[in-house]
Amino acid sequence: MVQVKKPDQKPEVVTLKAVAQYLGLTPGTVSAVLNDSPSARSIPQETKNRIRAAAKELNYRPNFFARTLRNKRTYTIGVIAEEIGDSYSSPIISGIEQYLRSRNYFFLTVVHRHDPVLLNRYSQLLSERGVEGIITVDTTVQEAPALPTVAIAGHKKLKGVTNIVIDHEKAANLALKHLKDLCHKHIAFMKGHLLSSDAKDRWEAICRAAAQFGLQIDPDLTVQIDSDDPTPKLGYPFAKQLLSRQKPFTALFAYNDISAIGAIRAFQEQGIRVPQDISVLGFDDIPGASFHTPGLTTVRQPLNRMGEVAAQSLLERIEDKKEFTSEIAIEPELIVRESTAKAPGGAC
Predict the structure, then answer these.
(1) Cα–Cα distance, 202 to 127 (Å, whole number)
(2) Per-residue model confidence (pLDDT) at position 156
(3) Phi, psi at residue 201, to the nearest 5°?
(4) What is the pLDDT of residue 64?
(5) Pairing assessment for the beta strands 327-330 and 161-166 based on DSSP bridges
(6) Residue 70 has pLDDT above 90, yes or no
(7) Could you identify which of 73, 180, 257, 313 might form a hypothetical disulfide with 282, taking C-beta atoms 3.0 to 4.6 angstroms apart as the criterion?
């Protein structure tokens, strides 16, 4: 039995061997259950419950370094992100963290802000730190990596890289059908920053959907975002730019929610009502989209879930040696709120 020390004595570290002795089981059996190893599958559920209850009762804490040396593993994942505090990356990284924590994994996060020198250096640095795999967020992977890699918003087909992508074809169709059903014919567009990994694929999908619905994309009603500002300032100057061209439009399909919110502010400053005068539609469904005034109509991509799927896919490749999957498509959903309405004076 494990002896309980008196309050004035330094607490003794409870080892895995001590837990096994307390239960009258072999250290191997206890280790298999507490480390959730494949061999634990043959252990009766009742025994597993006893082991976990005893570990909790004895306040057992696994020795990370012993575990690492024993298994020749670090149980650490590297996360490479373009940004960490913005409304797109934050929920994704939160999803990654939730899943990795449930599997007793640690992760290291680095931010490159589209600096190619930093990106290369961080990839090497994480590898040197012993990470077992890498998850990238809004980062274009240029070459096949040495480690298992999952790219969120990845579009480049590379051996060893699983791309987690939103179905842009469906997303574009949902958005433009919604605007067409509201009788909008003159639609302005904000294209994403060229360094954003989704920008090219999303725009091409929008062009195809517009042709399908008989909607013309007017170059004078199209602006190219060339800033990576993670705040609503992203869309503000480009909405001003659209207005300065003095070409009428009744709806704006923004690249993302942040740029849409910035655009709404620019419109309101000019006395333009949203949605009575101009409807605004975003993309992502960030946490603040439903609380904005007016509530933002948007194409939802489940960012938190995408992080979880990425982490799960990576661990399945690391632990279960599952067959490599090149792409996992995530279904988008149209969320209709108050920022879109029927085109003023428009007849469908």
Answers:
(1) 32
(2) 79
(3) -65, -40
(4) 57
(5) parallel
(6) no
(7) 257
Specify if 337 maps to a domain.
Answer: no
Could you tell me which of 239, 185, 247, 177 has the C-alpha nearest to residue 208? 177
In the structure encoding, which two tokens stand for residue 348, read together?
Answer: 């469908």
Residues 193 and 79 in one domain: no
Q: Is 5 a domain residue? A: no
CA angle 53, 317, 101 (to 5 degrees): 40
Tokens 């057992």, located at residue = 60
Q: Tokens 């006395």 appear where?
A: 271
User: Has residue 4 got a pLDDT over 80?
Assistant: no
Whether 346 is covered by a domain: the verdict is no
Strand partners, 162: 150
Question: Which two tokens mark 46?
Answer: 């009742």
Separation between Cα atoms, residue 203 and residue 263, nearest integer Å? 19
Amino acid type, 66: A
* CB neighbour list of residue 52: distance below 8 Å, 6 or more residues apart: 33, 34
Confidence of residue 191 (pLDDT cuts 50, 70, 90): very high
Closest by CA position to 252, among listed 260, 244, 241: 260
Establish if 236 belongs to a structural domain. yes
The Cα 98–Cα 101 span in angstroms is 5
Mean pLDDT lowest for which of 153-167, 173-187, 261-275, 278-292? 153-167
Q: Are residues 296 and 313 in the same domain?
A: no
What are the angstrom distances between the C-alpha of 149 and each of 77, 81, 188, 277?
Answer: 10, 13, 37, 46
Banded model confidence at residue 1, pLDDT cuts 50, 70, 90: very low
Residue 60 CB neighbours (<10 A) = 21
